[in-house]
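Q: I have 287 residues here and want to know how they pack in 3D. Can you give me a structure?
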Amino acid sequence: MDRNFTNAQRAEVLTQALPYIKRYRGKIVVVKYGGNAMTSASLKEQVMEDVVLLHLTGVKVVLVHGGGPEISEMMQRLGKKAEFVDGLRVTDRETMDIVQMVLAGKINKMLVNYILMQGGTAIGLSGMDGHLIEARMKDERLGYVGEITGINIRPICDLLEKDYIPVVSTVGCDRAGNAYNINGDTAAAWIAGALGAESLIMMTDIAGVLKDKDDPSTLIPRITLDEAARLKESGVISGGMIPKVDCCVEAIRRGVKKVTVMDGRIPHSILMELFTDEGAGTMVVGE
């Protein structure tokens, strides 16, 4: 804690956060965490600290994670070259084994452990547990890349009722027992929709939707679904931001009240989004 703050200033900060704590107490907030927002051990620790703080204030937090860079790193270590088609990882059976090992094993249990170290209570799940994420093959060219067909939300609800933080890795399955690599943003949108979440927070490596992609000061703080469509047509939303915003729109249409895309590398960005007037990143809302 900053030693330059007086006790009175610290108390004032807590007082200003009180209305927001009341607003979110008992509500479900889904946090999508992964990729380039998981760049260092200290950053992971800080994000999990925020998750535990939300939990202790009565927010029902669900953490959904990916881990593309770590999958690529493991493939390289095992002598397997990563291939991509239209931005999606080509996933043969061997690659799917690596995906499952890294996501459902290494990363999932590491995040659970970080939460436990911060004094929280968490249990890790993969999308295969209880057929949480049901999927089918998206495109034969991609192999075992999954398209979600349904969400069985009961395993998550059971954990929330018992006051655990569910930590979900985005591996899906079908009724024949095949495992599928699921896009983390898409999985988070479907899970948040199935839960009727108050908020979905998408942590990424950019500030949010920018009018000028090279100028962080041009951040657009709030957009509606209609505005999102117009920004795509005009080219303001382009490249890798298109699938991110599409997942935000999908979540809103599935019943999530608001979705925020933010830079997960900024310390305590989750708390800034939920517990301050200014928020963080770009918020996507219904009409």
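Q: Anything worth noting?
A: The mean pLDDT is 89. The first strand starts at residue 28 and ends at 33.
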